[in-house]
Amino acid sequence: MWNARGLVAGLLLTLTPAPALAAVAYYLATDVPATLGSTDFTQAQIVQSVNGTYTLALAFGGGLVGLRAINRRPDGTWLLVPAAAGVPVYANLLGADRDSGGNLVVAFDVPTNLGGVEYLPGQLVRWNGGTSFGLYFADPAWPVEAGLRGFSFVPAAGSVPDGDGVPGTLLRVGLTAGNLTLSWGASCAAGDSDYEVYQGSLARPFVYNHTQRLCTTGGATSASFASPAGSAYFLVAPRNSIREGSYGRASSGAERPQGATACLPQQIALSCP
User: Fold this and answer.
1) For 70-80, what is each residue's pLDDT tens digit?
2) Domain carrying residue 67
3) Fewer beta carbons within 10 Å, N or C terminal of the chain?
4) Does residue 147 form part of some domain?
């Protein structure tokens, strides 16, 4: 194929080759047994294609009769919905992702009846395994004529060690020559790459009033700054590139509130680690 380029006055016309398509590699599953290249594959196998050369990537046993959706995440884990889950043939899965609690969530392109429950386009549906599904999220104001073209969960951030559910080095505060040094253990979430420090004042009656002191430590699990005047408390929240995590839990077990001025929107991992 050639691309044409010319001046408006028609004085110059050049033909240049269209850029060659780069190498294409992707994973696939077929709906019936198929011969790809010279190799026979079944609908219970995941196949890798690299420029039309097909190799087996993953095979399943245990009576799996096929796959309705596959998605390989960057960390190498697979999101799979088998045909045996009972998804009717008229419904197409438009997306699949796993939330921070490990739940596999899917969306459909048409109203889909599963186990006697009708799930609508625009709704997120949790697959519980086997043939069991449940509603994960529904926006009551979602327009009936609209569906999803796909979806992906916002990556959630975790929390630093708190001496309870998150093991590791607890927050420590040291004072040297008028400077405070805070140090803490790493976040429980592997995707967290940085940390924030929040500072509040201590007064009676106590009310949370912390605001941002540092929105990044450059990835370090420590920070130093001049000691504040008066009594103060400090909280450390881990973060990824777009969300901050937990500020820790109060003695009641409730999450501490987000800062009055926050560095990032908050999305706390449902399960960590």
Assistant:
1) 766 666 667 67
2) 25-137
3) N
4) no
Output the six-digit token pair for 47: 């196949």
Give me 51's structure tokens: 């420029």
Of 189, 191, 198, 184, the closest CA to residue 241 belongs to: 191
Residues 233-245: tens digit of each pLDDT: 999 999 999 999 9
Calculate mean pLDDT across residues 34-49: 85
SS3 85: helix
Q: CA dihedral defined by 175, 180, 184, 190, rounded to 10 degrees? A: -160
> Are residues 192 and 129 both part of a single domain?
no
The DSSP secondary-structure symbol of 255 reads B
Average pLDDT, the chain: 82
pTM for the full model?
0.67
Structural domain contains residue 120: yes
Instruction: Kindly state the percentage of the chain with pLDDT values over 70.
Output: 82
CATH number (domain holding residue 225): 2.60.40.10
Residue 248 lies in a domain: yes
Helix (H, G, I), strand (E, B) or coil at 265: coil
Residue 3 lies in a domain: no
Q: Enter the DSSP assignment of 145.
A: T
Tokens 């998804």 belong to which residue?
Answer: 87
